[in-house]
Amino acid sequence: MYTLYGMSGSGNCYKPALLMRQLGIxxxxxxVDLIHxxxxxxxxxxxxxxxxxxxxELEDGRLLAxxxxxxxxxxxxxxxxxxxxxxxxxxxxxxxxEQYSHEPAIATVRFWVHYLGKGEALRDRIRETRPKxxxxxxxxxxxxxxxxxxxxxxxxxxxxxxxAYTHVAHQGGYxxxxxxxxxxxxxxxxxxPGFIAMQS
Amino acid sequence: MYTLYGMSGSGNCYKPALLMRQLGIxxxxxxVDLIHxxxxxxxxxxxxxxxxxxxxELEDGRLLAxxxxxxxxxxxxxxxxxxxxxxxxxxxxxxxxEQYSHEPAIATVRFWVHYLGKGEALRDRIRETRPKxxxxxxxxxxxxxxxxxxxxxxxxxxxxxxxAYTHVAHQGGYxxxxxxxxxxxxxxxxxxPGFIAMQS
Lengths: 200, 200
Description:
2 copies of one chain form a homodimer. Chain A is an alpha+beta fold. The first copy, chain A, folds into 2 domains: 2-75, Glutaredoxin; 85-190, Up-down Bundle (Glutathione S-transferase Yfyf (Class Pi), Chain A, domain 2). Chain A is built from 7 helices and 4 strands. In chain A, strands 2-1-3-4 form a 4-stranded mixed beta sheet, with helices on one face. The first copy, chain A, is globular, with a radius of gyration of 17 Å.
């Protein structure tokens, strides 16, 4: 059985949990309190030198870091990661978009505001970061005006990756009401078989 | 023939160029001056709504963004992207590490210092960012003390992705002399068949 080290409320940790539920893969969840330093202990750093969750442990002890690498690994061979080369390239494009252009703005502001309670103290930094988050939402909105899901008309791990922090973007002060295609897509994701909500 | 829209001196744009040379794939390079706004024109945004280079155009006009998605697409079926599932997962882990933990610190400080000439004006921001870059280099150093290349003993697209900005990290003021395993690995990458240097 897989072991998933993660923190409840983290979108990155929710991604592989949601995927494993949808693929019917059994796993054990180990809560890691990153806010209080649990990813920086010598024991944890021996498992992941980059000191981050999620971390996926296989039954034989092999370890895999990076939430989106887990999605690719776990979904390989399933319809959630298409085998056709161009389709797969579209999925990959959205996975890298998520980690580079979306998460650092959407998830980071949410972390500052919702977890650290520093909405006021970090006001200037938030004012600088939020437009980048809205730009990323704009890119998604444009795509979702053309296709039902991000990589085309089928649900894939690209949707899981981008659902994770988009559906809680309001906790960082983002207004999703300006993005009707995104709002409709959030509901489509939530209607997928095996969907589970993120634990908070 | 592929068309690669990119800016000379950009590590992200260099990645698919290096890979295509190594795989013997012909391509046409179109220089895009992002510093002077060429990725923000209506014409360019129609090709890539995220307004970034590199951008890969196929002969039939299909478009792919995100440098690491290009690496996956182009290397698919070659030894540079292993087909074995766990090996492939290791490559993916390093590709996401690069875009999330390495590039935003290493490439960003280089951009501020080397391209914008704001090493002094952005001193506080650089002082805050540089430890993240050194942390990423530390993670690489640890891996390269165990294996010849990042994802194991064979050269893969993970090495291309991380070579791109590591070999010019000094232009952002990073001292690589503290990282002997990385320095030896840079030379190993440069000895790979078909290697070309980044245009500056």
